[in-house]
Amino acid sequence: MIIGAGGVGRVVTHKCAQHPEVFSEILLASRTQSKCEAIVADVRQATQHPALTTAAIDAEDIPALVALMRSFEPVLVIHVALPYQDLTIMEACLQTGVHYLDTANYEPKDEAKFEYSWQWAYQDRFREAGLTAILGCGFDPGVTSVFTAYAAKHHFDEMHYLDIVDCNGGDHGKAFATNFNPEINIREITQKGRYYENGEWVETEPFEFRKSLNYPNIGTRDSYLLYHEELESLVKNYPSIKRARFWMTFGQEYLTHLRVIQNIGMSRIDPVRFQGMDIVPLEFLKAVLPDPGSLGENYSGETSIGCRIRGVKDGGERTYYIWNNCSHQAAFDETGAQGVSYTTGVPAMIGAMMFLTGEWTGAGVFNVEEFNPDPFLAKLNEYGLTWHEEVGADIEL
Questions:
Q1: Tens digit of pLDDT for each residue in 320-349?
Q2: Where along the chain do its domains lie?
Q3: What is the C-alpha end-to-end distance of the chain, expressed in Å?
Q4: Helix and strand element counts for the chain (H, E)
Q5: What burial class does residue 397 get, using C-beta atoms within 10 Å of its C-beta: 0-12 exposed, 13-18 middle, 19+ buried?
Q6: CB–CB of 17/7 below 8 Å?
Q7: DSSP reduced 3-state for 159
Q8: Which of 22, 279, 291, 340 has its CA 20 to 30 A from that of 397?
């Protein structure tokens, strides 16, 4: 059962339907059933999957979720809707005995703050129920965490410095658009940054730190230090890490638009009174910006996301770079979605496949780096996101 019918939901549905031997029955559900029906029509034509259905669901309504789960009886829910809905879906899974997977950690609607504490608090309940909850199985978080686990397993005795680097080197031809849900995207990048160093979290102002980094096949891009959720779990699960940071590229035109949005109050998440009704400026902005799902057709260029790591192996210092580049055009040609949706949706499908085929097991709440990275990365190569690695790389950081 897949919840969410945006660009990522389209990719997840498409990729799951390519493997009916694992995903024998698929239900795609979202608040707007017509969106689900449009996706399923395209996927059915492309894959000929014999058992694709749709449903309308309010993912914040636990009784409605429970009723739908009891009707469809899924083994696993793949949640790719809004992160505000993580906890309601997890609650419904516990009530119905259904396993859970998502791509982004919970954040409350009224505060631009995201961390794993709310979901980690479900550990005992999922373990006692004999259920598995897999958190953060997109690309970042997700593949970046699996990349880190792979590096720890195969290339380091101790990892000391971790830098996750995320570049979108594509061009969608719009004056301003976000590559995933504008409400979530703008909340994420306008909050204060954070990085981990020597056992402490260091807070930064938004876009305070910039470095020019070189990305394979793309070139040099300005990269800005942000906080990203996988840092929280990675420093917990790999205590030898002395410093962990996350960098993302932004063009100057994008940043200029963003400053205007902030300066005129359109990034606010508190309601304002307008013509007798309460509206949230950022939610209104989302309604007038281009739908990220509509960007794919004319999107050129590619993404490049990976991990640059420094540590120790056999007594000597080692550097290591592991990354994936994804073509927006190739993603659109296969699934009708652009590369950012593709790089999130493919790993979600593979994580579900890992669970359903018994490669990833266990009762409780898990971040993806806690599982064996090898079978996941083998499938990543096979199903559309080829990765590369370089030992002794100039990691620039």
A1: 999 999 999 999 999 999 999 999 999 999
A2: 2-135, 143-334+377-391
A3: 41
A4: 14, 18
A5: middle
A6: no
A7: strand
A8: 340
